Amino acid sequence: MMQNNNNTAPISTKAPFLSLFENLQYGELHLKQDIQAGFFGIIAIHNTTRGPSLGGCRFIPYSDPQNAIIDALKLAQGMSYKAAISDLPLGGGKSVIIHSEKIKDRRKIFELFGDFVESLGGRYITAEDSGTHVTDMDIIFEKTAYVTGHSNIAFATKDPSPLTALGVVTGMQAAAQHHLQRSSLAGLHIVIQGVGNVGFRIAQLCQHYGAKITVCDSNPKALQHAKEHLNVGICTVDQIHSIPCDIFAPCALGNAINTQTVHKVNAKIVAGAANNQLESIEMARILKEKDILYAPDYAINAGGLIHVAAQYLHQDETQAREKVLKIYDTLQSIFIQSDTTGLSTAEIANQIAEQRLQA
Ligand code: NAD
């Protein structure tokens, strides 16, 4: 275990995860291993100034533990920023359990993880993420109360995707009003990269609001599902950035806007669900120079976190929905500050989040 309370001397070793630990201004990093069970768990707690850290538990393979630690550190910092920009009384944390062939007993893994979470006394609250499911949260709940998204939660919809999609579409409306002076999405052309859980629902909602939609997906099954259930145009994965449109919505993986693609973007607005859409903050500056309004990813896609947080904070689904609709005001404020300062929207969002984390 390493703890950096900001008063201690800088950590001198140059191991990549330690540099990141310092640069991202951590925080806590906890590791737990059970060799017999094949368990290797990581819990990164970035910041608890605003409240206990909340973030999902990933259960996926990694090429080595260092990469898993780096993933957890980056993701937990992202959760701090997302909670702060959404004005939630929570900090940022994330956990990773390294998936490996050595693991024979899944139940044992999540029992061990539940004990691990419990040992931190509530500074970290866990939830579902890539590779984990409600049934895993149920096992964790047997060991600790610091878990959400389990079967005992009263929410009818356990899946955060519908509220994530609602938040993204609300953010698109704010962007369309600010940048195109359009009070609705009707008649706008919206291009969606990735029609998985969230992207499909965004397409559904945008269609409901009268937008024209074009989609792509690298998975033929997802594309077929969209074709069968929606009235959408289809393009290839390679064409997606350059299609002339009003809104480009990255809803697949991270890094959709990178040095290769940023100059191809032929949209007036970039607003989508994916995490880490920008390869670097420089991409946000280039988009601004091209007069493309970028809705910062962690502000527009906070609906999923709001959904999970509401369960933990014993709020109901109506309260969660009301909070998600506030994404409109959050983004409007970011857009206005970007106009008045000349900074990119991503820089403004970071400034707001950092101020709140230091408060
Ligand atoms: P998902 O896996 O259900 O959907 C992603 C889709 O993108 C898949 O259909 C996949 O085939 C497709 N895809 C992958 N690479 C692609 C490419 N290069 N081009 C086109 N399509 C590609 O995931 P999801 O839950 O819909 O999440 C989408 C994004 O939103 C992710 O970045 C996720 O981290 C982020 N996000 C999701 C939530 C949520 O509530 N699920 C919340 C916040 C952020």
Automatic annotation (TrEMBL):
The active site is at K94 (proton donor/acceptor). Belongs to the Glu/Leu/Phe/Val dehydrogenases family. NAD(+) binds at G194, V195, G196, N197, V198, G199. CDD domains: NAD_bind_Leu_Phe_Val_DH. GO terms for molecular function: L-leucine dehydrogenase activity; nucleotide binding. It comes from Candidatus Berkiella cookevillensis. This is Glu/Leu/Phe/Val dehydrogenase. InterPro entries: Aminoacid_DH-like_N_sf, Glu/Leu/Phe/Val/Trp_DH, Glu/Leu/Phe/Val/Trp_DH_C, Glu/Leu/Phe/Val/Trp_DH_dimer, Glu/Phe/Leu/Val/Trp_DH_bac/arc, NAD(P)-bd_dom_sf. The keyword Nucleotide-binding applies. One of its GO terms (biological process) is amino acid metabolic process. Residues 158-359 form the Glutamate/phenylalanine/leucine/valine/L-tryptophan dehydrogenase C-terminal domain. Pfam families: ELFV_dehydrog, ELFV_dehydrog_N. Catalyzes the reversible oxidative deamination of glutamate to alpha-ketoglutarate and ammonia. Keywords: NAD, Nucleotide-binding, Oxidoreductase. Its EC number is 1.4.1.9. The keyword Nucleotide-binding applies.
